[in-house]
């Protein structure tokens, strides 16, 4: 049976585009089906599945990459954003990859990034 299916596939592959379109119409009429319906269902199902897979991130970390030339200003902003002591804020400012804020909302992360960058730091929101 596989050999006969292979032969049929070969014969169908030799059809012109117009002949293939006519064949589709004839089969739709004979079997009472539409070739467009399964394609439309597949297209409709595609974006819905992708939306579930790409959940929006809700918690962000504000990470200092570099304190920059105005380290004292950066330390002041770190102290405003956190409850760290002066010494701990200084250590954090000097630690590349240190988390200034962890698991905060998008708005809070954006605001913290803005303040720290205005003070001269290089910041990453992850």
What does this structure look like?
This protein has six helices and three strands, in the order H-H-H-E-H-H-E-H-E. Helix 4 packs across helix 5 and helix 4 packs antiparallel against helix 6. The protein has helices at residues 2-13, 17-31, 36-53, 71-81, 86-93, 106-118; strands spanning 60-66, 98-104, 122-125. 61% of the residues lie in helices and 14% in strands. The two termini are 57 Å apart. Strands 2-1-3 form a three-stranded antiparallel β-sheet, with helices on one face. It is an alpha+beta fold. It has two domains: 2-53, no CATH class; 60-125, Ribosomal Protein L30, Chain: A. The radius of gyration is 31 Å and the shape is rod-shaped. The longest helix is centred in the middle third of the chain and has 18 residues, at 36-53.
The total number of structural domains is 2
β content, as a range?
Answer: 5-15%
CATH architect. name of the largest domain: 2-Layer Sandwich
So, the CATH homologous superfamily of the largest domain?
Ribosomal protein L7/L12, C-terminal domain/Adaptor protein ClpS
The shape is rod-shaped
| CATH fold description of the largest domain | Ribosomal Protein L30, Chain: A
Radius of gyration based on Cα positions: 31 Å
Instruction: State the oligomer.
Output: single chain
How many β-strand runs?
3
């Amino acid at each position: 049976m596989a050999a006969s299916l292979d032969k049929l596939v070969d014969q169908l592959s030799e059809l012109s585009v117009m002949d293939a379109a006519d064949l589709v119409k004839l089969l739709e009429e004979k079997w009472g089906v539409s070739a467009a319906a399964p394609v439309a269902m597949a297209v409709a199902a595609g974006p819905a599945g992708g939306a579930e897979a790409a959940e929006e991130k809700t918690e962000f970390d504000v990470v200092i990459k570099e304190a920059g030339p105005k380290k004292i200003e950066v330390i002041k902003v770190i102290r405003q954003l956190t409850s760290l002591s002066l010494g701990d804020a200084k250590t954090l400012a000097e630690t590349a990859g240190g988390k200034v804020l962890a698991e905060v909302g998008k708005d809070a992360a954006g605001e913290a990034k803005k303040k720290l960058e205005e003070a001269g730091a290089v910041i990453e929101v992850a």
